[in-house]
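thought: fold this chain, then report.
action: predict
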Amino acid sequence: MTELEPHYAGIPASALPPIERQPIHVVLDNLRSAYNVGSIFRTADAAAVAHIHLCGMSAHPPHRKLAKTALGAFDYVPWTYYERNRDCLDALEAQGIPVVAVEVAESAVSLAEFAWPQPVAVVFGNEVHGVNERVLRRARAVVRIPMRGHKNTINVATAFGIVIYAILAQWRIL
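observation:
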């Protein structure tokens, strides 16, 4: 471990040096897998996202399965749980944060072609059913990850990593 790569396991969040959070809000719309939610927390910490908004059935701390994959990242990434996704969207709208859904849809813009606004709230949906139709109607845009194989979807935690790092690259933050 070098000075550039400190390991913060076991150090309370209040004792850590401040970091510059990126103006990215993550909305998890009814994710079924606590393991996926935990993985998203870890990647969100790596990318220094501003906030994770957990909606509906999405696992939220404290949760044993989430903790297994998050490895404590939920102590470092600000998060809020909403029973109803519309309450989350209302809160983001009140803050003037545009919502962009990541979904397989015919009208969706390719990830490579989309100009990401700053700030932004990025919605990721249920592993089987995708982003809720009511959420899609409220989104400013729908973005898709181009697929070249026979399947048209990938794991939601993997999709999250691809999208978040594409945003950071486009904003020249990496």
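thought: worth noting. DSSP finds five helices and seven strands in the chain.
final: tokens above.
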